[in-house]
Amino acid sequence: MLEIRPFTPADLDVVTALAREQDFAPGIGDIEIYANTDRQGIWLAWQDNAPVGCIAAVTYNPDYAFIGLFVVKPEHRGKGIGHQLWQHALKTLSSVQCIGLEAAVQMVGFYERAGFQKDCITTRRQMLFRSEASLDASPSQRSDVAVVPLSEVSLEAIQRYDERHEISPRPHFLELWLRHRAGDVFAARDAEGECHGYVRIRPCLLPIGEGWRVGPWLAEDPGMASLLLNNALDHHNGVVLIDTPGHNPSAKTILSARGFKPMTSTVRMYKGVIPRGHDRNVYGLACLELG
Fold first, then answer.
1. Domain final residue, candidates 59, 91, 121
2. Which of 60, 92, 121 is the endpoint of a domain?
3. DSSP strand E in 38-116: where?
4. Whole-prediction pTM
């Protein structure tokens, strides 16, 4: 008999393994943050007392939510398990005005039948970074801002900046995300202490071994975006992954010049009305699972 159960801390390793096996490349600590962003944002499908799938349906506020981490173990597909997880997520979010998700290309038709509309293509880009290699010819600082670690800028300043450029305010998620012990955060701070962009890099779990994921990565202009990326990449050797939104062509330009190669693509979709141009200053997404 199939049961849909809420996530508990004891399920952390199971969900992390599911995400890793599907090449989601979960960051260290990501699953815990997904679970804690909403009062209850992750569910697991259990059959014969064994976990066989999961889904995240996280409400940021009454106006916006995101669905992700939608996985059914390969040997259990075709049995209606995914359908039950999906219906559970939609029921949970029934009162939310707008829902976003990242769709695998082969799933776009399924989501369109559920009322979702295509917005843009999200591309995962990858490179093997070595810190002894030249980052690029751009300077390491600018006269109008200083790039500083998280300890030298207020979290409130970053949250104000994020709210102006993201689709929805997400202060609780952002606090958990930026203050997590894994990885590093850098911000572009002016003389008055205001934020003009920020980036986080964190270790992630690849199907074999580990690497790094960059995101969120937001900036006022391409030059500032490059400056922040320089600081994030420095001293982080290995495979680096960045998920870039289709509405910001400058992200592709910057990363292609660095040697990043496109690896996979998903389709950002929404059910409900969203403001156009909301992500023009977003160069890298926090994650595909929560937008």
1. 121
2. 121
3. 42-47, 50-61, 64-72, 98-104
4. 0.92
